[in-house]
Amino acid sequence: MPDFFELDRHLTPEEREVQRSVRSFVDARVMPVISDHFEKGTFPTDLIGEIAELGLLGCNLHGYGCAGLSEVGYGIAMQELERGDSGIRSFASVQGSLVMYPIWAFGSEQQKERYLPKMAKGEVIGCFGLTEPDAGSNPGIMRTVAIDDGDSWVITGTKRWITNGNLAQVALVWAKVGGLDGVVHGFLVPTDKKGFEARPIHKKMSLRASVTSELIMEEVRVPKDAILPNVKGMKGPLSCLTSARFGIAWGVIGAASACFDCAVDYAKNRVQFAGKPIAAHQLVQQKLAEMLTQISCAQLMALEVSRLKEEKKLRPQHVSMIKRNNVRMALEASRMCRDILGGNGITLEYPIMRHLTNLETVYTYEGTHDVHTLILGQDITGISAFE
Question: Is 218 a catalytic residue?
Fold first, then answer.
């Protein structure tokens, strides 16, 4: 993991311990198996308990059995998990930022007590139901509705591209109350309810070591207390996405660093022209220098935004900038590393092509690169380009 500016000196002892313990876990438990899971299109469910035991599920939340890490500690944990694979980090991100966080921030005390301790232990897995087949970048046009029939909420709709969908015991489903013109609310929906079905999405060429699903809900009845009582409107799901994007911006540094470390090692040992390693050639050194510079910039941005978050000065636009910049950096770095490895770069013997294809998805989800560009453009000019 490159650290050109010795940023470790800014970490607290607790944050250094997080880095050490998660890095050791990834090296010992993720790296030996992840390429096989990626090739087979399976998620290593046997690691869930160990991830939970490390305190990585909802790790920046306080109380209810959560670890209460600093925002930097959370970011470092996501960075190390994604150094292993985006699918591993996505599992933890969805559980912590997209399901546990909204329960913690917007749920009733009963909901918090019921779900958070078990979710922190990995005993209950959650998924986040916002995106629909026809409502991706514009979730406000969702067609999932929740009808109040007096005794229950009756939820009908379809959600797609849902990480953890077929692993989850509870789905946080965002739906419009009363009809398509209604206000959006969040509902905690047990996945064993009649009318609820999770269908796995197959034939993926990216995030293969991750469970991705479509959720079908046909008049699913949940009790009246299933609704998150302390938020309404798009503020609810969008605040969750801001939390998750923050983790993504850290996570992709891990993916870029894994590719960079691999490319440096390969270039120093791959001998070509005149019996010299390719690392001795100017073009290869230029690529490595550029990647190190961009990884270092991403680290500095993530660290600074983390401090803003801890000081309660964070704005969503800050997160848009680091998500946009850091994912683009990681994707470009992985492509450059693949180029350095030549034909070997496309095999699962090395981690680069796996990270590259994963990053193509990360570039799109949690707000596409273009959407974050327009968010920043609106912040700069005061003019919305969305409509």
Answer: no
The token pair that represents 168 in the structure block? 């989850």
Query: Which pLDDT score is estimated for 158?
Result: 98
Q: Has residue 387 got a pLDDT over 80?
A: no
Chain length of the chain: 387
Q: Which whole-number Å values give the CA distances from 88 to 66, 71, 122, 253, 324, in the listed order?
A: 19, 19, 14, 14, 21
- Quick one: pLDDT band at residue 42, thresholds 50, 70, 90? very high
Give mean pLDDT, residues 193-220. Answer: 98
Q: Where are the domains positioned within the chain? A: 7-120, 126-226, 235-381
Cα(72)–Cα(84) distance, rounded to whole angstroms? 19
Q: Residue holding tokens 């992985």?
A: 334
Domain with residues 235-381, CATH architecture: Up-down Bundle (1.20)
Q: Which of 287, 259, 231, 299 is nearest to 79 (CA)?
A: 299
Report yes or no: 372 and 319 within 8 Å, Cβ to Cβ: no
Tell me, what DSSP letter sits at residue 97? I
What per-residue confidence (pLDDT) applies to 138? 94
pTM over 0.85: yes
The alpha carbon dihedral of 45, 48, 51, 57 has a sign of: positive
Rounded CA gap, 311 and 266, in Å?
A: 42
Q: Model confidence over 276-334: pLDDT tens digits?
A: 999 999 999 999 999 999 999 999 999 999 999 999 999 999 999 999 999 999 999 99
Single-letter amino acid code for the residue at 67: A
Q: Which two tokens stand for residue 248?
A: 């993504």
At residue 116 the predicted structure's pLDDT band, cuts being 50, 70 and 90, is very high
Q: What is the DSSP letter of 63?
A: S
Fold entry, domain 126-226: Butyryl-CoA Dehydrogenase, subunit A; domain 2 (2.40.110)
**Residue 382 buriedness (CB in 10 A; 0-12 / 13-18 / 19+):** exposed
Q: Which of 71, 82, 132, 366 is an active site residue?
A: 366
7-120: CATH topology is: Butyryl-Coa Dehydrogenase, subunit A; domain 1 (1.10.540)
Tell me the CB-side half-sphere exposure of residue 268, using CA atoms within 13 A.
7
Whole-angstrom distance, CA of residue 155 vs CA of residue 5: 51
